[in-house]
Design goal:
The protein has five helices and 25 strands. It is mainly beta. Strand 22 and strand 23 (about 365-375) form a beta hairpin. It starts with a helix and ends in a 9-residue tail after the last helix.
Length: about 425
């Protein structure tokens, strides 16, 4: 369900539960409430901001839970956050609001909001510094008993980057996720706020003809890329006809192809945009004819047996940014990476281990959980790798991790885990 439709359903349920649509027995004033009313306009057109989202949240509710706090005999506080959409004339009226201080946030797709500067984890699980920054960025309103507090807003349209993504043979790259990095003041590249980009419509992606558009953006320098990925899943139930499915295995192999038609961030082209600018020429060509597959095994240096779990990273030899991620397959004890362009790399193996798979099932036979249990760990290792075509048979040797017991080391040379399927 789309976010706006879902929000409307929640609003209808909340209003129904509170007796909305029935004549109130008392006035707002006599019940000790206040209200917040106003209009929202689009600054670039001076037109009303129709169906903009207005959220009112008590300041006291915006706090982290103190797990060490002692139980209190005070009455339990019930949060009273309200979200509604503006009418077609851009007006809104939030009534029956308990007097107090609130944060008020107005959002409309394509327009900037105070949350634009924050990543999702900074909002959902804010550190103390993040919380202070958010509190400073958000606007406050004080609701007084028996009074209507007026708040009007003018929304600034954000900048936008758009283009088309094609394979080098002319085919459309459809349904590819689009990622954005912004250059920070210290010169580093960080993901642009996924809150700003996905709060209304989900993460940006190409359409059926490869078109994409990213908005709203703040002025700055950006790197734009699409995710070229292979996805697979195995389940214990039906998938095609909407039946009940329980996941057994979920794997995804992806590489970023940047504006500039390269998988290497170090040589990708950047895009600089100004306030409210619309950059529409950020086309990307995926060099599908020059992307290769590499595969191999990770073996224990002590006795040469294949290790059956671990993460595999392919790093750019210039800036050590990650191009491709993969993992060792538990069943075949091999790793494989797709979409690798030719060039010089660093192959990094981390968290390598001899592992066993532990699964738990319900009484009816459906899978409840499945996870790997490492029984012998190995040290991280790196080795150079040159790719000029499809390459198989790569062998990477790993040493026992420092701190493992002698008994573990001895056992590792006897029997590697036997996984039966």
């Amino acid at each position: 369900m789309r976010p706006r439709a879902y929000a409307r359903c929640l609003l209808i349920v909340a209003l129904s539960a509170s007796g909305w649509g029935q004549p109130p027995q008392q006035t707002v004033e006599s019940q000790g409430f206040g209200s917040v009313v106003g209009h929202v306009y689009c600054a670039d057109t001076n037109a009303p901001a129709r169906f903009a989202r207005v959220t009112l949240e008590p300041v006291e509710d915006f706090k982290r839970v103190d797990l060490d706090a002692k139980p209190s005999s005070a009455p339990i506080h019930v949060p009273s956050t309200t979200m509604m959409e503006t009418r077609t004339d851009g007006s809104f009226a939030i009534e029956y609001v308990t007097p107090g201080t609130y944060y008020i946030l107005v959002e409309l797709s394509g327009y900037l909001s105070p949350l634009t500067e924050f990543a999702s984890d900074e909002i959902t699980i804010p550190a103390e510094l993040d919380e202070k920054r958010i509190r400073t960025a958000l606007q406050q309103v004080t609701v007084v008993r028996g009074q209507a507090t007026r708040m009007d807003f003018r929304l600034e349209r954000g900048a936008a980057i758009s283009g088309r993504v094609l394979y080098d043979d002319g085919g459309y790259v459809a349904d590819a996720l689009v990622s954005v990095l912004r250059k920070e003041k210290d010169g580093s590249w960080k993901p642009f706020s996924d809150v700003a980009l996905s709060r209304f419509h989900g993460q940006p992606a190409t359409d059926d003809q490869g078109h994409y558009r990213i908005a709203p953006l703040t002025p700055g320098e950006y790197l734009v890329s699409i995710d070229l990925e292979l996805f697979s899943v195995s389940t214990t139930g039906a998938i095609l006809f909407g039946g009940r499915s329980d996941f057994r295995e979920d794997s995804k192999r992806a590489v970023h192809i940047y504006f500039g038609d390269t998988a290497r961030r170090s040589i990708a082209k950047t895009i600089t945009i100004g306030k409210g600018e619309n950059r529409s020429d950020a086309d990307i060509t995926v060099p599908i004819s020059r992307l290769y597959t590499i595969s191999g095994t990770v073996t224990a240096e002590r006795d040469g047996h294949p290790v059956n779990s671990g993460s595999i990273l392919l790093l750019d030899a210039v800036d050590r940014s990650t191009l491709v991620e993969s993992s060792i397959g538990l069943s075949d004890e091999r790793f494989a990476m797709a979409f690798v362009p030719e060039g010089d790399y660093i192959l990094k193996i981390s968290s390598a281990a001899d592992s066993i798979l532990e699964t738990k099932y319900r009484e009816d036979g459906l899978l409840m959980s499945s996870h790997l249990i490492p029984i012998h760990m190995y040290a991280d290792t790196e080795q150079p790798l040159k790719v000029s075509g499809d390459t198989s048979g790569i062998v990477v040797k790993v040493m026992e991790k420092a701190g493992d017991s002698d008994e573990d080391k001895a056992d590792s040379g006897k029997d590697s885990p036997q996984i039966n399927y």
